[in-house]
What we know:
Elements: H1 2-17, E1 25-28, E2 34-37, E3 53-57, E4 79-81, E5 87-88, H2 94-103, E6 113-115, H3 129-132, H4 148-178
Parallel strand pairs: 2-3, 3-4, 5-6
Antiparallel strand pairs: 1-2
Amino acid sequence: MPAWGTLILLWATVEATKDCPEPCTCQALESMGLWVDCRGRGLTSLPALPAHTRHLLLANNSLRSLPPGTFDHLLQLQTLDVTQNPWHCDCSLIYLHLWLEDRTPEALLDVHCASPSLATIHPLGQLTGYELGNCGWQLQTSWAYPGVWWDVALVVVATMGLVLLASLLCTATEPLLSGSPSS
């Protein structure tokens, strides 16, 4: 009977690791998940990952960005190591930022940006939305801030509004004063 148990365990291990992506190594876990180790493989993009991946190690590769939804099909994913990659921290990394923030916020302090220069001084967890960039979306030029003339125009409009308000208040109180009985 122990031989049958060993064969069944061996078969379960082979079945669990058969979906392992080519450059990575995989190990079946006792808890029906998969340990996927892709550390130091020179990856520039992610390979197709098995749905039952529970621990994913992507450290020390050449990953610069991740498409939105990359980990959405990995419902069992508990551990994600994405450190030591040359991340380009712009809006294309917002998905990774939010994913880590929801699941392992402490990991955000271990992920560092290689570019752009504005982002290289902080870990991913300390970057603001402004520092992550806008990836090309901009306000229409007609609504964009045109500079000092915009400030001058605002001051003129505000002054005209105050003058108009003061004149309305003065005309509204005059009939009350002129309509009072004389002694």
